[in-house]
Each structure stands twice: as structure tokens, then as C-alpha cells.
């Protein structure tokens, strides 16, 4: 494959959009390579992770000869010049043809490249993971070297790709931690952010899974945003909380932030302990339970077989005992209570 020029392909925008949408997904780096190779053509590519004191892990490839792959994994990796990237924490572009010219290739590795890997040139984009590891996106050509224009373009792309790489690391870690916590029954808040029209601005990856545990279904955003209480209890100690988000941020300004989490003790147990501490009567505790489950005064009266007036009177006595004036303050007081 021959090329002497480097320019943006007509479909650059769609390829970049695809790569961005894959951040946090296992297909991210493959989509990045596909983006790069449309501008810098190659015969095949290799994605490998390099770490201190161990053989590189070939994450993915699309044309590496099986014998070359086996030989590399067994012994030849020790002669790979890319290992020097472990001593340089900065993103870099490494040109095999330049290493040849500089005499930086070991003769054993040169023989492997020529006879087993059978490539003329390799262009590797190195993306540091931490001080002891990095990822290499390697573009390989069998017949012609990469041009100066292509190498320059790789350097120009590197800063963008590194930032995407950093965001992918953070998103991937967050996703795996969330899944681990859910699989092991541990608590971690799920986050959903809604606009004023109830459209979803952000929803954590495992929100739906947690909602199924809390309510046996995943409530629609418009149903969640329609609630007026700061807290809605689910089963087994799950709580859906609306945060009071006051932000001037261009994205979060005016948005509604909801947390779904599982407390170490259930809301019912928390209310019972809170009631004992503040000497609430059994009837008053029943009213608090129903209020925090979203029942209005008429519904509470119907549930308990008393009049609406009696419900109002009980609430006033509760507020007096707690030195508060509203149901929102009651919710806040219970949530801040620790047994």
C-alpha cells in the first residue's frame, strides 16, 4: 500500500463521533485505530499493552501472522524497542523506519521484523496508562514506509487521542467498579440528571439494574421528576433522593439531580429509631412512614381510618416536637439521623 500524502478523510466527522461514543466500551481502541488508519493507511494493526517486567499483552490485532505472534509472546518481546516507552511517561509517536536509520534496532529483533512479522515499517502511537504501563496503537505496512507527512499527522492526532484515552480509562474504571459493587450487594449511589422537560441528561450505567432492585421496575424519568418529596423509599432499604442542585454550570444549571442508593439500614428502621429518640407516638410514626412514601393527607387518613383533620393535627404536633415547620424539613431531619 503506497501513500505520500496525509489528509482528513471525508468521513472523519462520523469516525470521530463513533470513537467518542465508544469511550468506556471495550470497542473504544478498535474504533480509534479505524479512525487513524483512514488518515494513515496500513496493511494491518496491533493494539498492545506494555507493562514493567512482563511480556506485552496483545489486546487486539487484525492481521498479525500467528507464528510471529507466538514468537513475540515467547521471547522476542524482550527486544522490542517500544519497551523504552516505560521510561518515558509522555505520549509519543515511534517510527520503526526512524529507529532503523538511527541504528536503534537490535539485530535479533530486526531479523524477526523482516522474516516473521514481514513488515517494512510500523508507526506506533504510545498512550501512557500510568508510570509502569502504556498502550501502543501500532500501524504496520508490509511494503512502503510511512511518509513524513503521515508521521507529522500522527503527532498532531496524539494530543486528541491521549485525552480520549484518559477519559476512557476513567469511564471504564467507574463502570467496572459499579458492576462489582452491584454483583456483591454493596452500596454505591446511582446518578440520574434530568432537564426541566424530564429528558435524561446523564444516567449512570447501572441505574436501571439498581432501580429494578429498588422498585421491581425502572421508573420513567417523567414519573421521577413529577414527585415533590425529597426522598422516596423502595424495598430493602433503597432510597431515591432528589438533590437540591444550585449551579451556574452551562450544563447543570437548572437540572434536577437524583441519587438512588441503598442505606445500611432501611428507611423504616431509620424512622422507628428517629421516632423513639424524639418520643413520637405510634400514630405519629405511622403518619411519618406514610408521608415519606408519598401519601398526601387524604391518602394517609384513608390508610389509617381517621379524618384528614386528625392527620393535620398529628403533623403539627410532630413539627412542634422537632422544632420544624414543614414536611421537607422532616425528611431532611430523618435522613440526617444516625442511630
Distance between the termini: 71 Å
Largest sheet: 5 strands, antiparallel
In one word, what is the shape? elongated
Arrangement of strands in the largest sheet: 2-1-5-4-3
What does this structure look like?
With 339 residues, the protein is an alpha+beta fold. Mean pLDDT is 84; it is low at 1-5. Strand 6 and strand 7 form a beta hairpin. It contains 13 helices and ten strands.
Describe the structure concisely for a colleague:
The protein is built from 13 helices and 10 strands.
Observed structural traits:
alpha+beta; five-stranded antiparallel sheet; 10 strands; 18% strand
Ordered list of secondary-structure elements with their pairings:
Layout: H1 12-21, H2 28-39, E1 44-51, E2 57-61, H3 66-74, E3 92-95, H4 96-102, H5 107-117, E4 121-130, E5 133-141, H6 148-183, E6 190-194, E7 200-203, H7 207-215, H8 221-225, E8 231-233, E9 238-243, E10 256-262, H9 267-277, H10 282-292, H11 297-304, H12 308-322, H13 327-336
Antiparallel strand pairs: 1-2, 1-5, 3-4, 4-5, 6-7, 6-10, 8-9, 9-10
